[in-house]
Design goal:
The protein is an alpha+beta fold. The chain has a domain at 6-84: Ribosomal protein L31 (Ribosomal Protein L31e, Chain: W, Roll). The chain is built from three helices and four strands; from the N terminus they run E-H-E-H-E-E-H. The protein has helices at 25-41, 50-57, 108-115, and strands spanning 6-13, 46-48, 67-74, 80-84. It has a four-stranded mixed β-sheet with strand order 1-3-4-2.
């Protein structure tokens, strides 16, 4: 049995959650995530990680997020795991800073003598 698994990253639009009653929105959002995974990964066995659930429920049952970014992983047995997507942080090399020579500051008296 190979350890190959299918991984995909999706942004799931949960905007239609707002059409359901206030006191059922977060539950509906979880169901929408589950339906999305079933539709796109072609399997009925779906598990949602706790992090994703906490993300949906963070603002309460009435105000779930409008969009959610998730990583869907399907193993050989057809199980789908929905986890929170975490971007890989790129380490950017900072270009070498050019040394700027500072000019000595002129006092007011020096400016007056130059004008004359």
């Amino acid at each position: 049995m190979s350890e190959e698994s299918l991984e995909r990253v999706y942004t799931i639009n949960l905007g239609k959650v707002l059409l359901s009653p206030n006191n059922q929105r977060a539950k509906r959002a979880i169901n929408m995530i589950r339906e999305f995974a079933t539709r796109h990964m072609k399997s009925e066995k779906v598990k949602i990680e706790e992090d994703v659930s906490h993300l949906v429920w963070a603002r309460g049952i009435r105000h779930p997020p409008r969009k959610i970014r998730v990583k869907l992983t399907k193993d050989d047995d057809g199980n789908i795991l929905i986890s929170k997507y975490e971007e890989e942080k790129k380490v950017e090399e900072k270009p070498k800073e050019k040394k700027v020579e500072e000019k000595p500051k002129e006092s007011k008296s020096d400016k007056k003598t130059k004008k004359e």
